[in-house]
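Friendly challenge for the regulars: who can give me the structure tokens for this chain first? No prize, just bragging rights.
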Amino acid sequence: GQTIMSFDVYDITIKQFLNDSLDAIEKELKGDVLFYYGEIRPHLVTVFRDIVEKIDPKSDEKRLIVILNTPGGQAETVEKMVNIIRHHYKEVFFVVPDYAMSAGTIFCMSGNKIYMDYSSSLGPIDPQVVKEGKLVPALGYLDKYDELIEKAKKGELTQAEFLILQNQDLAELRSYEQAEDLSIHLLKNFLIEFKFSDWNVHNSAGALKGKAVTAAEKEKRADEIATELCDNNKWFSHGRFINVNILTKDLKLKIEDYSLDDKLRNLIRTYNDLVIQHIRRGNYAFFVHTKNFI
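First reply, four minutes later:
Bragging rights claimed.
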């Protein structure tokens, strides 16, 4: 009965190593680190709030670094989480070691900076809504409904398709449209208020280089990015992985690419790979780690 179980030794060792690794990232990026793994769901907001409140930001460093791994979730929850974070921190960086999809992408756009490497991915903004207790992508339903309406206008609707169309819940479809509208609205607002907050001068080559960036130009760029990310026809799949090259070249979104920063990449990889192994070993659906919580 006096022997310490091997699991206990593993648990103590892994937690100490994770805390040390998190501390190294905090020192490198000069802020508090919060690691988040799992879906972004309403029932997690209270837990998230309590964890953020316990971080106890350093008085001289009002910066939070969110290391985010998520398949997505609900846009309304993202808005709540952003409000919680911004109550405590003036500056927020997002680090995406693997992927942050859908609502996770919206979450990232609320950051002042987004850190990714060549293997990291964001995803299309396809809002997820709850249907029969599960999260389902809303745009797929709306696209199919629009397609059937167009076929009906042309008189090309089959009997089977007519029955499908007839059985659609219009109130439910409207809620999907509202989810899409909210996702676009939040994405644009986050970009303008946070991501573009220090975009004051045009840097790209051309006639505008060196000139001041106007509020109208920020809004136009935000609208372009939101429209592109919400275009199902462009990405084809709700789960499409969008890498750094596409984000920077096609969407013209500024990303802090740490692919060639050996020190930072090694710190993030070492920490993230180990914590993901720990999550899989414990079969956790949701996992958060800060210097004061694990």
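Residues 1-5 have pLDDT under 50 and may be disordered. The beta strands are 32-37, 63-69, 91-96, 99-100, 113-116, 121-122, 128-131, 134-137, 256-257, 287-289. Your move, everyone else.
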